[in-house]
């Protein structure tokens, strides 16, 4: 059985998961990390339930971790799954936030994919 862990990609700057976790209210950052840890405990494909969702279209291959913060602001972490021989990782690559009932733009998602490309180049995955 594969063991799953959560890893924050070694990327910094606007749009990175590390940046979102640093700037989010502490209770929101903690909740996002708890959701990621729950996914690692159960296996990411078993969690679902609106908190961890596989994405589609241009974002196929990505997973989105969702959380609502103060004022109903929406926080999202974007993760990639990386497999290894004994341990696999849910890698938190990018993060975005948006007002309630608004949508991310195509440019927002393109920025997430660019961060994913940077991560893959750095890690060789």
In brief, what are we looking at here?
The protein is α+β, with helices and mostly antiparallel strands and 125 residues long. The chain is 37% helix and 30% strand.
Annotate the secondary structure layout.
Layout: E1 3-8, H1 17-23, H2 26-42, H3 44-47, E2 52-54, E3 62-68, E4 74-82, E5 87-98, H4 106-123
Helix pairs in contact: 1-2
Describe the protein in words.
The structure is a single chain. The protein is of the alpha+beta class and 125 residues long. The protein has helices at 17-23, 26-42, 44-47, 106-123, and strands spanning 3-8, 52-54, 62-68, 74-82, 87-98. Strands 1-5-4-3-2 form a five-stranded mixed sheet. β2 and β3 form a beta hairpin. The longest helix has 18 residues, at 106-123. It starts with a strand and ends with a helix. The relative contact order is 0.22. The mean pLDDT is 89.
């Amino acid at each position: 059985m594969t063991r799953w862990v959560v890893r924050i990609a070694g990327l910094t700057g606007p749009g990175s998961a590390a940046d979102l976790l640093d700037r989010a209210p502490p209770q929101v950052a903690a909740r996002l990390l708890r959701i990621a840890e729950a996914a690692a405990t159960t296996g990411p494909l078993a969690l679902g339930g609106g908190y961890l969702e596989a994405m589609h279209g241009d974002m196929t291959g990505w997973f989105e971790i969702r959380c609502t913060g103060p004022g109903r602001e929406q926080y999202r972490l974007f993760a990639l799954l990386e497999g290894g021989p004994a341990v696999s990782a849910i890698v938190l690559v990018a993060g975005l936030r948006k007002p309630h009932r608004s949508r991310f733009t195509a440019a927002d998602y393109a920025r997430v994919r660019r961060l994913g490309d940077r991560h893959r180049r750095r890690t060789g995955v």
